[in-house]
Amino acid sequence: MDTSTHNAVPRGDASCGMETATHISIGAHMRILIADDSSAIGKRLQRLLQQLPFVRSVVYSPSIATAITGAEFMQPDVFILDHHFPEGRGLDVLESLRDTIPDTEVIVFSAFATSIDHDAYRRLGVKAVLDKTGDVGLLMELLTEMHHASLDGERS
């Protein structure tokens, strides 16, 4: 298990196949779960997101089973979900978790973003469907906007 991360306290649970990096920063509060069958993409995204000053932890799950377990246990603020896994679809994950993580914002981040059923994801409450081959900047902007919105909500 690769737990080398920048500015992080590495933690991992090999028994469930997830890798966690916790960013130590004052005011960091956002917990993010990434589910992607490509470990290269998932781990790269994990390293990138943990550098955001408002992110407390980023957990990477390489499969549907670990994503479901991770979401149930972690109750993430944001769930970044791939559409296509060898064992099923991101839609299957969301349908099974619909009642388990009602307060989690979901972003679908997929190489198949142009060909998937956007309406089905919207019906399940997905905040955005982004193309992981070119929308990394948009993902970062969206997470930053979500962070600012959560701060505004805390002040109200």
If helices are DSSP runs of H or I spanning 4 or more residues, what is the number of helices? Answer: 5
Strand arrangement within the widest β-sheet reads: 1-2-4-3-5-8-9
Shape: globular
Strand content: 25-35%
CA distance, first residue to last residue: 42 Å
The tally of structural domains comes to 1
The total strand number stands at 9
Superfamily (CATH H level) name: Response regulator
Keywords:
single chain, about 160 residues, alpha/beta, Rossmann fold, 7-stranded mixed beta sheet, 9 strands, globular, disordered N terminus
Polypeptide structure, described:
It is a single chain. It contains 5 helices and 9 strands. It has a single domain (8-155), classed as 3-Layer(aba) Sandwich (Rossmann fold), CATH 3.40.50. It has 156 residues and is α/β, with parallel strands linked by helices. Helix 2 (64-74) runs parallel beside helix 3 (90-97).
